[in-house]
Amino acid sequence: MPAPKKQRKSYKPPAKITEIRDVDAELDAHLGTSPPLVPVRWRLSTGITLLDLAMGGGLPSGRVTEFLGDSKTAKSALALSAVHQVQQGGGKAWYWDVEQGLSWELAALMGVSLDADKWKYRHYSIIEKVITGIETICRSRIGNSCPSLHVWDSVAGGSAEVNHLTSKADVGDQPKVASRAALMCRFFERGVLGDILDQPTFIFMVNQIRDDIGARYAGQTMKTGGRAMKYWPAITVKCEEESKILNSAKKILGAIIKCTVIKTKFGANYRVARFPFFYDYGPDNERSIVQYLCDEGVLKTGGNAYVEWNGRNMYRDTLRDMMLEDPAVHAELLGMATKHYQEA
């Protein structure tokens, strides 16, 4: 005869687990319940479609997005492009120009409006003033449904007030060690980011890459701002100049910029986007889309300059001009690029 089946006993949690649950309830009663996780509710385009796709949809609201790189890698141009995008959406931008290096001509060429209700320019070389300004404006706009963008250009350009040379200071005075890093840590820890998590507020930080003079081997680099800039930004994009853009006379017109998402909390790391940056008018989104579709084999090409579109062979620049002139062509090519990038 088969052995009788054993009856299963009802599970009783051990005493230790019950004790932990009781302590957790007491903790909630003493400290209050933890606020729920706030998802990203809004995204702001950078104006470059492929870069938006690499970032998971653009700049996230209520978070910090860092763009770092060497000089001449279109970081400030991308900031101006984001300013144009937030203005197009009915918002306002604050440009904190620490380096006092903003190109007003490039801003005008990129369509940035300088109207007082859409744009506010401020130049402070002391980091404490920038931090106070951003915190004050962000908290004053809580509950405002109008999107706002803060561009800090750049983290590496300012100095702490304790190190700022005044008429009474001597050039030979020793600066306070790691004062910039301490200030950046204080900025992130003071809670302004928690206040704007559910607000349509975007923070665009420009940072620079410097040679690491304390490294064991030559050629190693680091970024300014200390370890706070390594951990607090939700997205970090590294911008690099990949190649020069030359005309038939070998004159340099611009550069191909390679953007690598080296850190993101919203998708896969190390996604790459490329776009042409022209020194006389800025990034070219339409040209980057056409070039991407050609490089990926989505569009048939003939050599380095021709592309087939609707049974016609034409220059790639001609197709780029068609995107600007015909919304239907623009929408179709944009959809093709978006679909291929997401499936790749």
Task: Give structural attributes.
344 residues; alpha/beta; Rossmann fold; 2 domains; ten-stranded mixed β-sheet; three-stranded antiparallel β-sheet; 25% strand
Structure characterization notes:
The structure is a single chain. This protein is an alpha/beta fold. Helix content is 33%, strand content 25%. It has eleven helices and 15 strands. The chain has helices at 15-31, 49-54, 75-88, 104-109, 127-140, 179-189, 192-195, 228-231, 285-295, 316-325, 327-343; strands at 43-44, 59-60, 64-69, 92-97, 119-122, 148-153, 201-211, 221-223, 235-246, 252-264, 271-278, 282-283, 301-302, 306-309, 312-315. Strands 3, 4, 5, 6, 7, 8, 9, 10, 11 and 12 form a ten-stranded mixed β-sheet that branches. Helix 9 packs across helix 10, helix 9 crosses helix 11 (327-343) and helix 10 crosses helix 11. The longest helix is centred in the N-terminal third of the chain and has 17 residues, at 15-31. The chain is globular. The N and C termini lie far apart (62 Å).
Quick synopsis:
The protein is an alpha/beta fold and 344 residues long.
Rg, nearest Å:
25 Å
How would a textbook summarize the main sheet?
A: 10 strands, mixed
Q: Note the gap between the termini.
A: 62 Å
Helix content: 25-40%
CATH class of the largest domain: Alpha Beta
Provide the succession of SSEs.
Answer: HEHEEHEHEHEHHEEHEEEEHEEEHH
Shape: globular
> What portion of residues belong to β-strands?
15-25%
Runs in which pLDDT lies below 50 for 5 or more consecutive residues are none
Q: Name the average pLDDT.
A: 87
Give the CATH architecture of the largest domain.
3-Layer(aba) Sandwich
Could you say which structural class the secondary elements and strand pairing correspond to?
A: alpha/beta
